[in-house]
Each structure stands twice: as C-alpha cells, then as structure tokens.
Amino acid sequence: MNLKYKRVLLKLSGESLMGEQKFGISSDMLTYYAQEIKELIAQKAQVAIVIGGGNIYRGLSAESSGIERVTGDYMGMLATCINGMALQSVLESNGVYTRLITAIEMRQIAEPYIRRRAIRHLEKGRVVIFSAGTGSPYFTTDSAAALRANEINADIILKGTRVDGIYDSDPEKNPNAIKFDKISFAKVISMGLSVMDMTAFTLCQENNLPIIVFDINQSGHLTRIAKGETIGTLVD
User: Fold this and answer.
1) Which of 67, 120, 173, 188 ranks highest by number of CB atoms within 10 Å?
2) Tell me, what CATH number does 105's domain have?
3) Are 7 and 64 in contact (CB under 8 A)?
4) Is residue 1 part of a domain?
5) Low-confidence stretches of the chain (pLDDT beneath 50)
6) Full residue range of the structural domain in which residue 27 is found
7) Bridge-partner residues for 7, per DSSP?
8) What per-residue string of b and e applies to 182-199 under the rule 16 or more CB within 10 Å gives b?
9) Alpha-carbon torsion angle 64, 160, 181, 148, nearest 10
10) What is the 3 state secondary structure string of 102-120?
C-alpha cells in the first residue's frame, strides 16, 4: 500500500481517553484507539504516539491547589506515563508490538529515551509511545510531540481532536464558523488560531513539519489521512 505519510506522530490528549466519563481512562476509548492504530500499522506505517495526561492531572491547574508550577508539571508528566502504560497494554493485547519510552527514567516500566533506539523500534514496525513529555517543566505535551516528531524525522504530526479541523472561530459556539482544508503557519499565527501552543507550533514552523488537525473519533480517519486523503486541516 502506498502511503503519503510513512512515519507519523499521533498526538492524543489525555482528555480523549475519558470518553463519556469526567475523569480517568475509559476502556472503550482505549480499545477504539488501539483498533485505529492497529489498522494504520497494518498498512506498514511507522507510528509514534505522544499522549497527554489531562484526564488524570493537569499541571496548569496545580497552582490554584497550592502546588507549585514545577511540581505540578512533573505530576502531569507522571500522568502521561500512566496513560502510556494503559495504551501499551491494550495495543499489545490486540497483537501490536509497542515500546513505552519515557523522558523521566523509570526502568521498571519504560525505556529511557534514546533517539537512535526509538527510530530503530519504528523501523522494526513497533509502535513507540513517548511519555513524560519533554522531561522538563514549563513544556506541554504539544511541545513534546513537536520535539519528538522532529527528532525522529516524522513526515507529519497528526493531532487528533474532537473537531474535524481548524475553523476561523469555535465551531462549538459559532454554527457559521468556516473550516479550512489547508492553512499556512503564518496565517494561523496572524489569525490567532489555537492549533498547538506557540512553543510547539514555532518548532514545527521552523523545521517545515506539517500538522494535520482532524477528528480522531471518526473511525478510519487515521489510515485514510496516512494514505493522502484530504481530511481535517493541513497546516504547512
């Protein structure tokens, strides 16, 4: 099968794992994502994943609870490891070989991040799950996704969200919002659209790494995008 994007980095939010719940991890959502990723792997794509931790703990909301920012950020990083372990377990129970890689050393549960080793795993057809963000506070998992995608020479970042692309205003609030099929990095910045945080976005812009924002909850979209179908919004 000819893929337009052979090595992809999939960015998932922690909140996407909650499903209909208000907290934690939904087994239904884990199973759904595992099936979508398995389908993509079957097309011989190389898949890396960065997953957030907002379903368990949000570092940004820590200060209101009296926890200092740096400590809160590290707590958020640990939450991404829990999500990574859950996704790894379900992927492997579906017959997909995975490696959980962490930016904070915890040898009993995950490999430390070594760039060459991570790339080798991808070349061998294993799904690589990057956890613990960048390993440093003050950086979001969006920044981790942009950093890792550039480091592993990914063809594209696929940002799975609840909406089917980028609009000129919030489509959940404005029924007349206009969707873009394609938009430049410069236009996203000039219009003040929120795709990723600015650190992550700038890293992609400077290294000419395209981003596709799409609705992850539409079955089959992941594979169809990798094959080159126009789904969601392409930022390049």
Assistant:
1) 188
2) 3.40.1160.10
3) no
4) no
5) none
6) 7-235
7) 46
8) ebebeebeeeebebbeee
9) 90
10) ECCCCCCCCEECCHHHHHH
